[in-house]
Amino acid sequence: MFKFITEENLKDKYRKNPFENYILKENEKLTPGGREFLQDKNIKILSFGEEISKEKKEEKRESVLDKKLIIKSKIAMILFFKFGNKYINNDIKFGKKIIIFGKLLENLKKYFEGRILNLEIDSNLKKENYKKINGEIDEIYIYQGENSKILDLYYLSSIVEELKYLIEERLCGKEDEIKILENYLDILLELLDEVIGETIGGKNIGE
Question: How far is Cα 94 from Cα 124, in angstroms, rounded to an integer?
Fold first, then answer.
């Protein structure tokens, strides 16, 4: 048996709590006056089935984006571990730093997986006494002996930058969470800049 939704029903509902969409349940029908009221207010009429379908599509999209962030952060983590191990035999200090940075990305992956709730940077890593090197790679560095390290570091920085943009896409509208995650990755980018500065020849402030 159908329940008819009248103009008065809708006016009362709208007065108490204005709405942009009206979902018709399976056993409901709009009276001509009710339909006209919704049209006059530019309120979209959805059937119950349409709303369920819309919610499922949104859930699917959220799921895909969640997995994309997990996979992207995992790829970034593996790359840092890979490059750290590449250099650790010849330059243990340099290799260890890259591996430590990889562990920061491992924590980020765990965050996206829901395995940890908070992201923290070890206070020992928050050093600000290195020369910052930014911008494009100068041709001079291509011919220096350390060029392989420098190019790898710029590559790793680009991976982290890409992850930042993906976070903005994934968490669109969640400004507080975006800010926390971006601050976390900004610290990692600053640390990478410090290592680039060391590798090129940057010195500690005060030296």
Answer: 16
Task: Please state the rounded mean pLDDT for residues 98-125.
Answer: 79
Per-residue pLDDT for 139 more than 50?
no
Q: Mapping DSSP to helix (H, G, I), strand (E, B) and coil, where does residue 65 land?
A: helix
Buried b (16+ CB within 10 A) or exposed e, 1-40: eeeebebebbeeeeeeeeeeebbbeeebebeeebbebbee
* Strand bridging mode 21-24 / 44-47: parallel
pLDDT of residue 138: 40
Q: Please give the distance of CA 200 from its chain centroid, rounded to a whole number.
A: 31
Domain ranges of the chain: 3-42, 61-200
Task: Strands of the chain (E only): list them.
Answer: 3-5, 21-24, 28-30, 44-47
- The residue among 79 and 123 whose pLDDT is bigger is 79
Radius of gyration of the chain (CA): 27
This prediction's pTM = 0.46
- From the list 88, 123, 125, 119, the residue with the least C-alpha distance to 105 is 119
Distance, C-alpha 92 to centroid of its chain: 32
Judging by DSSP bridges, how do beta strands 3-5 and 28-30 pair with one another? parallel
Helix count and strand count (H, E) for the chain? 7, 4
Answer whether 195's CB lies under 8 Å from 157's CB: no
